[in-house]
Amino acid sequence: MAELDRTRTEVDVPGDWTYASAPESRDIVRIADSYGYYVGGEWLEPAETYETIAPRDEEPLAAIGQATAEDVGRAVVAAREAFADGWSALPGSERAKYLFRIARILQERSREFAVLESLNGGKPIKESRDVDIPLAAAHFFYYAGWADKLEYAFPNRRPRPVGVAGQIIPWNFPLLMLAWKIAPALACGNTVVLKPAETTPLTALLFCDVLRQAELPAGVVNIVTGDGRTGAAIVEHEDIDKIAFTGSTEVGKAIQRHVAGTGKRLTLELGGKAANIVFDDAALDQAVEGIVNGIYFNQGHVCCAGSRLFVQESIYEPLVAKLERRLTTLRVGDPLDKNTDVGAINSAAQLEKIQELVASGVEEGAEIYQPPCVLPEKGYWFVPTVFTNVAQSYRIAQEEIFGPVLSVLTFRTPEEAVEKANNTPYGLSAGVWTEKGSRILWMAQRLRAGVVWANTFNRFDPGSPFGGYKESGFGREGGRHGLEPYLRFDE
Ligand code: NAI
Ligand code: MG
């Protein structure tokens, strides 16, 4: 016995199992002091600039141009010339070559893009490396494949390009949203003026170097930077044929009002308040993983985030207990650390919005749970949060929070689940967790949402159309459906 005790004390068993830091090196990324606008294959000097920062510690990264209506005008002229000077008449197989090149270069430079995306936007490197950048490349590969097959996608309909597309994208998936917009536009023979979000311009600006490498003809893609004023200048420009917007419902509505009657084509991908519905026959541990992925992925800055969890009453207690336990294992911190699960909130403004809505939840009477968590001192952070005891009327059950905040509600019957899930002005996505295939189909037919995930959540594929009902917008991106907004079929 004494012998055994002695060997035991000699074995060096660590008592502390917390993760050591595992930072991704940022040496691979070169950030210039300042950036202009990429117009007609050249860089234009901005007259006015603002600073873009790293949300993890507010480090200034670069001076970014605030494009005026004249700058936007130059970009539109370049896009129009490129459209008329050959791009729109190029055989689809030739356009495809450029798209394949872009896809391959994105893959080759994927680590560089991933590091820059996490630095400028705050998302965990694990996600930019494994989700954002590979999916962005996949979109270019996918639409490259369609470029010479448009006649087969729309038989007997003479598909032709629309012209110059003005594209305005948000900050939650900067490079991926750029790919969703640019890949189908180019595949269909259009040219583009794109504006990244003001807080996350750097990967779009690095993408201009990919275009140079791919030898894309000058003016086919033009990138201008700036805030909502630049976006409005794009929307208002008379020589733009089509607007594609992803962002808030508020701005989407303003754009729709402006475009009405102008003949401009429009697609809108706006907010959401998705229901993630768990039935009592679901595999609970898998469901918990899906719930966590649904709302804490990308700090909840996801338009299709599963922000309303509906749990069948009979499993409410065990499910919430498992979920809260799982939350204690989430690692919140440096986006560039390879072990980080939840990174930095994208901006001070977004953090303020989250704080305000969470305070309203407490005020209205919901019960808040936040795991013990040490947040970095600098930068923008929010602890993953679960609200229980939530009534349908609370603001946290109705408004898009766009942060790592989950509201838990309950239901008894499938009919009640459908009714509560559809009781929202939005309709972008939904999730259903059950062992019964017939119930999945029954639910999917009744849920008013563009995407319904079954026993999974936040799964994306370029071949699958994505888009909303009601105030989540209209038009589809991805798949064959995603070609249609960039084509006209008239004579
Ligand atoms: P936003 O809608 O203001 O910004 C999205 C893009 O639109 C940015 O590029 C911005 O510069 C541009 N923009 C702003 N005002 C414009 C205007 N008048 N005309 C044309 N373009 C304009 O979204 P914001 O303020 O960054 O976020 C506010 C809320 O919107 C978030 O808390 C979230 O709830 C929601 N949102 C939803 C997104 C989605 O993926 N559906 C993405 C970003 C935000
Ligand atoms: Mg805004």
What count of domains describes the coordinates? 2
Number of strands: 20
Q: Which fold name corresponds to the CATH topology of the largest domain?
A: Aldehyde Dehydrogenase, Chain A, domain 1
Please work out how many helical segments DSSP would assign: 16
**Name of the CATH homologous superfamily of the largest domain:** Aldehyde Dehydrogenase, Chain A, domain 1
Q: List ligands, each type once.
A: 1,4-dihydronicotinamide adenine dinucleotide, magnesium ion
Largest sheet descriptor: 7 strands, mixed
What does this structure look like?
Helix content is 39%, strand content 17%. It folds into two domains: 34-270 and 470-489, Aldehyde Dehydrogenase, Chain A, domain 1; 275-454, Aldehyde Dehydrogenase, Chain A, domain 2, CATH 3.40.309. It has 16 helices and 20 strands. The chain has helices at residues 2-10, 69-84, 92-108, 110-121, 125-146, 150-153, 174-187, 202-213, 228-236, 249-259, 284-296, 316-327, 348-364, 395-398, 414-422, 437-446; strands at 34-35, 37-39, 42-44, 49-54, 59-65, 160-161, 164-168, 191-195, 221-223, 242-246, 265-269, 275-278, 308-312, 367-369, 385-388, 405-411, 429-433, 451-454, 473-474, 487-488. The N and C termini lie far apart (93 Å). By secondary structure, it is α/β, with parallel strands linked by helices. α4 (110-121) crosses α5 (125-146). The model has no long low-confidence stretch (mean pLDDT 96). The strands form five sheets. The protein has a seven-stranded mixed sheet with strand order 14-15-16-13-12-17-18, sandwiched between helices. The protein has a six-stranded mixed sheet with strand order 9-8-7-10-11-19, sandwiched between helices. A three-stranded mixed sheet has the order 1-5-4, with helices on one face. The structure holds 1,4-dihydronicotinamide adenine dinucleotide and magnesium ion. Magnesium ion is lined by residues 228, 248, 251.
